[in-house]
Please model this.
Amino acid sequence: MACEAVATSCLAANTRGGESERESRERERERREKVEEEKKERKEKKEEREEREREREEREREREREREREERERERERERERERESERERERERERERERERERERERGEREREREREKEREERERERERERERRERERERGRERRERERGRERGERERGREGEREERERERRESEREERRERERERRKRERERERERERELFSP
Model:
């Protein structure tokens, strides 16, 4: 019996020892896996940081290239603007020369116009003299014409009074016709109103 108890105790001890060893190996395996996982995560994070850094540096280089392109373009635009300004200045100088030429032309024209005005004044003076003579002749003819016209007017006044009476009569007749037309319109309007009133009475509930 004692031997059996000892054997049982030894067997139990061996069993517990075996289980502790397996647990220890399991824990060691888990620890190694955890260490490997952490190393892997650190490596991935490092690679991500390095990738972001490369991307940042590339963006910065691209921005720098863009700034350089913009600066070159601004410089070319400044050069073009200087050229345009030079051309504008040349054009202003040409315009000033054209203006000086126009001024010389105006002066020549003014001298020519002054000579023309002098000739015109002389011509007008001669024309006024001819006009005075013409008016004098016209007044003489006018006196004779008025004498003849006064005779005609006396006859026309007599005929005109008869024409005025006819015109007044024509206007009176026209006014009466318009009044009749207005009365007829009012009559038709009242008739339509009565007709509508009868229809409302017929169809009202």
Notes: Residues 10-15 have pLDDT under 50 and may be disordered. Helices lie at 2-203. The chain is about 100% helix and 0% strand. The first helix runs from residue 2 to 203.
